[in-house]
C-alpha cells in the first residue's frame, strides 16, 4: 500500500506567542484565542447543566443517560480546540472526538427506553410496547413488516444501536494505527489505494444501522413519548454530528479553490483549522440547546435536599450498563441460534415483558416479590427454564407504579389463578392506577 503525501509544511513557525510588545496577533493566534474562549464557555455552560442534574438526582435511571449526553458539547469543544492548537496532529484528535458520538447515541436509546418504561398514568395498557400490532418497517424497508411482540425484535433493536459503541472505537483505533504508518490518507478522499475509504465504509454502515434502530424505536413508541420532547432531545445530538460533517465537507471542497497554502500551513491545515474553530463556536449554542432540551427542572422535587454530586458523576462515567446490555443481547442471539423455544415464543416474551427484555430496572416491589417467590424463574410451555426470563439482581427503579409487561390490568383482587411472579405482583394490589 502506498504512503500518503504529507499534510503539513516542512517549515515550522518559530515565532513566540508573546513578544516584547505583547501578543503577536496573527490570524492563527486570533483563531487560537477564539477557539479557547469558546471551548471554555462551553465547558462552563455544560458544567452548570450537569451540576443541576447532579444536585437533583431523583431518577438515576434516566439522569445517568442524560449526563452522558450533556458531556458531548464540552468534549467536542475541548478536543476541537486541541486539534486547532496542535494542528499537525489534527487527524488523531478528530478520530478520538467522533468516538463519543457512539456513546451519546447509545445513551439516548437507553433514555428513550426508560421514558417508555416509566410512562405516566395517562397511558393505557393497550398502548404499551407489548400490545402493539404488526407493522411496516420504516423507509427504505417499508415492504417488510415486523411484530414488536416477538422477543428477538427487542434484543435486535437494542443491539442495532449498541453495536456502534463497539465498532466506532474499533474504527478509530484502526485509523490511528493507519495514520501512524502513514496509510490512512483522509485528505485523499475515497482513493481505494488507502485505508480511509474502507474504514469510512464500515463506519457508514454501522452508524446507519444505529440511526435506523433509533428511528424505528421512536416510530414504535411515539405515543408513549408525548410530552418528553424526544425530537428536540435527538436534534440536540444529531445536529452536532450533521454540522461537523457537512462543514468539514464544505471546507474540504474549498481546498485549492478558495483556501490556499501559506508558508507554515498547507491547504489541509487551514481547512482543518477552520473546521475546528467552527466546532468550538457552535458548541456554545449546542450546550445551551441541550440545557433546554434536557432540562434539570423536570427532576427537581420541591423541598427535597440536594443530592451529592459524586454518585451521579460516577454513574455517568461507569459504562458497565452498556457492557451488560451488549452481553445479554449476545447471549440471547446465541440461544436463538441454538433454537431455545423461549427465544422464539411470543407467549414467553409476553410473560417476560418489555422491561426485562430491555434489561431495565425492576421496580422495588416487583423485584422483591419475584426474588422471594418460590418460582424465581418463569417457565415456558414445555416446562424448560428460560435463562432470559430469570430475574437479575434487583436494581432500583423510580417509578413504582407503572410496568409495561403485558399482564392484565383489571382488578387483581378477583384473580385467584395467579401463578407467575408477575401475576402475584398484580394480585397483591400493586397494579398501575389509570
What is the gist of this entry?
With 434 residues, this protein is mainly α. The protein has helices at 27-55, 60-70, 72-85, 90-97, 99-117, 151-180, 196-221, 230-254, 267-293, 310-317, 320-338, 346-357, 364-372, 421-427, and strands at 18-19, 22-23, 135-136, 145-146. It has two domains: 25-313, Rhopdopsin 7-helix transmembrane proteins (Up-down Bundle), CATH 1.20.1070; 346-427, no CATH class.
General description of the model:
This protein is mainly α. The chain has two domains: 25-313, Rhopdopsin 7-helix transmembrane proteins; 346-427, no CATH class. Helix content is 56%, strand content 2%. The protein has 14 helices and four strands. A two-stranded antiparallel ribbon has the order 1-2. Strands 3-4 form a two-stranded antiparallel ribbon. The radius of gyration is 25 Å and the shape is globular. The chain starts with 17 loop residues before the first strand and ends in a 7-residue tail after the last helix.
CATH class of the largest domain: Mainly Alpha
Give the integer mean of the pLDDT values. 77
Total helical segments? 14
Largest sheet: 2 strands, antiparallel
| Quaternary class | single chain
User: Percent of residues in helical segments?
Assistant: 55-70%
Measured by DSSP, the beta-strand proportion falls in under 5%
The N- to C-terminal Cα distance equals: 66 Å
Which fold name fills CATH's third level, the topology of the largest domain?
A: Rhopdopsin 7-helix transmembrane proteins
Unreliable parts: 120-127, 348-354, 361-434
Spatially, the strands of the biggest sheet line up as 1-2
Q: Which structural class should the secondary elements be placed in? A: mainly alpha
Number of domains: 2
What are the secondary-structure elements, in order, as H or E? EEHHHHHEEHHHHHHHHH
What's the β-strand tally?
4
> Radius of gyration, Cα only, in angstroms?
25 Å
- Broad shape: globular
CATH architecture of the largest domain: Up-down Bundle
Amino acid at each position: 500500500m502506498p504512503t500518503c503525501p504529507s499534510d503539513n509544511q516542512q517549515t515550522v513557525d518559530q515565532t513566540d506567542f508573546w513578544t516584547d510588545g505583547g501578543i503577536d496577533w496573527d490570524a492563527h493566534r486570533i483563531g487560537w484565542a477564539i477557539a479557547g474562549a469558546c471551548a471554555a464557555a462551553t465547558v462552563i455552560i455544560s458544567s452548570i447543566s450537569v451540576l443541576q442534574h447532579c444536585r437533583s438526582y431523583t431518577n438515576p435511571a434516566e439522569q445517568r443517560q442524560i449526563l452522558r449526553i450533556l458531556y458531548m458539547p464540552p468534549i467536542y469543544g475541548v478536543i476541537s480546540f486541541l486539534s486547532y492548537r496542535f494542528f499537525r496532529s489534527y487527524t488523531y484528535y478528530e478520530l478520538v472526538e467522533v468516538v463519543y458520538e457512539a456513546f451519546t447515541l447509545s445513551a439516548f436509546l437507553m433514555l428513550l427506553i426508560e421514558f417508555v418504561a416509566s410512562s405516566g398514568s395517562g397511558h393505557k395498557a393497550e398502548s404499551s410496547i407489548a400490545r402493539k400490532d404488526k407493522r411496516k418497517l420504516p423507509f427504505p424497508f417499508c415492504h417488510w413488516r415486523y411484530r414488536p411482540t416477538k422477543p428477538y425484535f427487542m434484543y435486535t433493536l437494542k443491539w442495532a444501536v449498541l453495536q456502534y459503541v463497539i465498532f466506532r472505537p474499533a474504527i478509530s483505533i484502526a485509523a490511528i494505527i493507519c495514520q501512524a504508518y502513514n496509510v490512512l490518507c483522509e485528505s485523499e478522499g475515497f482513493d481505494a489505494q488507502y485505508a480511509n475509504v474502507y474504514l469510512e465504509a464500515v463506519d457508514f454502515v454501522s452508524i446507519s444501522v444505529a440511526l435506523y434502530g433509533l428511528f424505528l424505536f421512536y416510530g414504535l413508541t411515539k405515543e408513549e413519548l408525548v410530552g418528553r420532547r424526544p425530537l428536540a432531545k435527538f436534534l440536540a445530538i444529531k445536529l452536532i454530528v450533521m454540522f461537523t460533517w457537512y462543514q468539514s465537507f464544505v471546507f474540504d471542497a474549498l481546498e485549492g479553490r478558495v483556501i490556499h497554502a501559506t508558508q507554515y500551513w498547507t491547504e489541509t491545515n487551514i481547512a482543518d483549522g477552520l473546521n475546528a474553530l467552527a466546532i468550538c463556536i457552535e458548541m456554545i449554542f449546542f450546550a445551551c440547546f441541550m440545557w433546554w432540551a434536557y432540562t434539570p427542572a423536570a427532576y427537581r422535587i420541591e423541598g427535597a435536599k440536594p443530592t451529592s454530586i459524586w454518585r451521579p458523576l460516577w454513574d455517568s462515567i461507569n459504562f458497565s450498563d452498556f457492557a451488560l446490555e451488549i452481553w445479554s443481547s449476545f447471549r440471547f442471539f446465541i440461544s436463538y441460534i441454538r433454537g431455545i423455544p423461549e427465544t422464539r415464543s411470543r407467549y414467553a416474551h409476553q410473560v417476560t415483558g418489555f422491561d426485562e427484555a430491555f434489561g431495565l430496572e425492576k421496580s422495588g416491589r416487583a423485584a422483591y416479590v419475584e426474588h422471594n417467590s418460590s418460582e424465581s424463574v418463569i417457565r415456558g410451555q414445555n416446562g424448560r427454564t428460560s435463562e432470559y426470563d430469570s430475574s437479575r439482581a434487583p436494581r432500583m427503579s423510580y417509578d413504582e407504579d407503572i410496568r409495561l409487561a403485558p399482564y392484565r390490568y383489571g382488578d387483581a383482587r378477583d384473580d385467584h389463578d395467579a401463578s407467575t411472579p408477575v401475576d402475584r405482583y398484580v394480585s397483591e394490589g400493586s397494579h398501575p392506577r389509570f
